[in-house]
Known about the structure:
Elements: H1 2-25, H2 33-56, H3 61-75, H4 78-90, H5 94-120
Amino acid sequence: MIILWIGIGGFAGALLRYWISGWVQAGVVTFPLGTLVVNFIGSFILAMVMFLSEYKGYFNEETRIFLSIGLLGSFTTMSTFSYESFKLLEQQEHMLFSANVIGSVGLTLLAIYLGKIITLNL
């Protein structure tokens, strides 16, 4: 049954990623802002889910797995981030490459920290 829940979460997360990333990216030609925003949101929500599970006992194991592996696992993506970063390098967009790598890693770490702080202070 857990495999089914992961699959359902993965389906929903992939659709959300497609819609949100596309909406954010609309009108932005070169910089992969949609992926950056999706990774920030997903990291923030993942932190809240995991810290609510670990410290507050809010989610049972099945719900935590559905949300973290299924929904958020397909919502955020390292492969797209890596591909888009590589394409920026190929296009000699060194400043945009640096902004994407530093922004993605820095903002997702910030999102985890903010998620922890907010969740543990509920």
